[in-house]
Structure formats: structure tokens, C-alpha cells
Amino acid sequence: MKKITLMICLLLAAGVNAQQEKGIIGYANWLDNWTEFKPQKTESKDANQILAGNITQNTKLMKKNVYILQGNVYVTNNAVLTIDPGTVIIGDAASKGTLIITKGAKIMAEGQETDPIIFTSNASMKKAGDWGGLVVLGDAPINKFGGAGSYTMDLDPSLTAYGGDNAASSSGVLKFIRIEFAGRKVKGADSFNGLTVAGAGNKTVLENIMVSFSGGDSFAFYGGDLNASQLVSYKSINDDFKMTQGTQCRLYNSLAVRSSYLSSNRDGSRCLEVKAYEKKSETDFTRKSTFVSASNLTLLNDSENIKADIQAGLIKEAVYVADNATLELKRSVISGFNPAVLLDSQTVVNGENLKKIKFEEMFFNQCTGNIFTENNADNSDLENWYGNTIFSNVYSQTDNKETFVDIYNAKRPDFRLQIGKITASSGK
User: Which end of the chain is more exposed for a tag (fewer CB within 10 A), N or C?
Assistant: First the structure.
């Protein structure tokens, strides 16, 4: 009898998973316990330890202390920075604290689901861009000339080199991490990102990381060879996921939530941006171009009135693919954008390019247009191509409340698709 009951349970579980196979997946809501969707209301603890200058030897940060990042803090000299689960590191708003793991050094920050590591702001009124963010630099390939780059911003140029030949290198572990209110603006330059990973190799672990209210991008990957899963970008000002400089990235089971009123609606601000390069003049086209293979992503705008916000010009595209870059996106949800996908105007719509830009088993929901070429009002060729039944893409105009399990739950939102809700036809 026990064996029969167990078999029934397994079959039911398999059925549930099959119906939820698009977008973020899991038998349980994997956002529970370690995420925080209202970090403004979380009081900052008082720091009792200062992190400043250069960390030149192996160092451990412990949960019993609260650390404050003052100014630009560099981990150098191949040192390893280890951070215990539950440790709180505060980016000083006054000095715009930033943590930089230099090339050859490592960060071992392995939090736990019930005890995440938290990077946040010490401002009394927390907001995007209060402090710098976390920068991880490695020695994996990039496609700039010489195979090397420098993440300068206003940092020390002698400590910000990245890139090399070791695709299988490790810059450490980032797991069950929250990064809040980072992304400070640099005068005369761009903004920092919540998490910048430049030239990191595929032995680097990037799992269960939440970046919320970033003043720049949430996640920015420059070159390198990366595997990443269960990443969460929440109401970033700029891009949620940015891939450039020849990154070879495999992204799985990850979430981006944008807001019509907080996320920027300017050109160049998207959920997912895939580019071959930042500056064409610095790019070595004999090296690998950017390749992104992503599956089970949920990219959504959480507005309760998507149509009105689109009409007001508050919402633009969710995904942007630039010329010469490759994106394979499968079993993912794009909900509430205008349009869902925009291809660079330099991308010629032909068989060769369409082989590099794949959308399969997708769920396009509440989007004004699905796949367009930039500055081209006629997208019939792309709609016909990706609307072919062989790609198994689904199109719908379903309200957020009906589409997702419980996205407006203030404490524990659930962004998985509701079981059985993917019932729209595969026609456009």
C-alpha cells in the first residue's frame, strides 16, 4: 500500500512540474526564506567592524559582527575573502563603499537558505545607488583586443584588470546572497551595478543571488564563461541581466521583476540585454562573440494595469539582442512589455541570423507585439518565423493575478505560473 501511495505522489508531482515547466520552476517556491522584497523597511544594524583599503591576506567575516564598507575596498594579492552565513555587510552611503575582488583573488560567500549573506545600505532613507556594489574580476576569456579589460569607473586602474585564457577558473562562490540599494552613479561615467562579474571562469559558483533596487544593472557579465541559476533581479533602474564582451553564459531558473514607475523606461534599459561588445573599436572579432543559453526565466512587469502603462510610454521591450550576439531562450515567460523582444537594427533577418536567435516553448503574455526589429514597424516576417508551431511558443493576454501564483503577496510572493493557466493557443 505504501509503495502504491508513493507512486501516486510521484506521478502527481511529475504532473505539477510538467504544467509549470515554463518560467521559474520548483515544486516549492524557492524564493521563500532567503529573499526580501521590502528591504526599505528593514532596519540597518550598527556596524562594529570597518572594512577599508586593501585586504591582502586570507580574511574571514563572521556573522557575530556587522561590517561597514568604507570607500573602495579591494581584495588583492590572491587573497581569499570568506564570509560566514548570516553576515551583514553595509555599504557606507557617505563614502559610497564598494567591494572589489581583484583578478586572482576569491570571494567565498556561501550563505544558507535560512541564513543569507546580506549586502545593504546604511542610509536612513534607503534608495537605489546608495553605495557601489560587488565587483568580481577573473582571468577567463573576453573578446577585447589582447584578451584583457579594465573595470575602471573611479577605481584604481592598477587593480581592476580582468580577462585571460582560463575559462575553467574560479573567482569563488556566491550563494544565498542579497545585494540591496547598490549601483552608485559615477560622475562623468556610468553607474556601478549590484553585481558585476568580469572575466570569471566556469568554476565560479553563482546561485541564489538577489539584487534589489540597483541604481545600475542588477547583474552585469563582461566576458568570461559562466553558469548561473536562481538569480533574482527586483526593480532595477537599468538592466536586470546584461551580457557583453563575449561572455559564454548559461542562465537557468531566474527571475526579473520590473516596475513601470521605478525601473527606467529609457532606451537601453531591459530585463535581458545581450550584446557582442560595448565598444566595437575595442573588440577582437577573431575571439568568441557573446553566447547566452537561458531557460526557465520569468521576465515580468508587475503593474496592475499593463495596457495603461504601455500607452503612457512607461514600458519598453523586455529582451534586446544586438548584432553578432547569440541568444537561445527556452521555456521562459515574458509578461507585460512593449514589445517582448527587440532585435538590433543592424541584425539582418535571414536564416543565418535566425539560427543564432532562438525562442522556443515560450509564453508571451500581455505584450504589445512579440518580436520586432529596432526602428521597423513591420514585424510580420519575425512573427511568422517564431509563430511556427515547431517552436511551440504560446501567446496570451492574461492578467498578472491569473497568470502567476501570488505575485502581490507582500511577504512571500510567488512568481511561478499558475497550474493549468497556459491554455492560450499557439497562434498569434
Answer: N
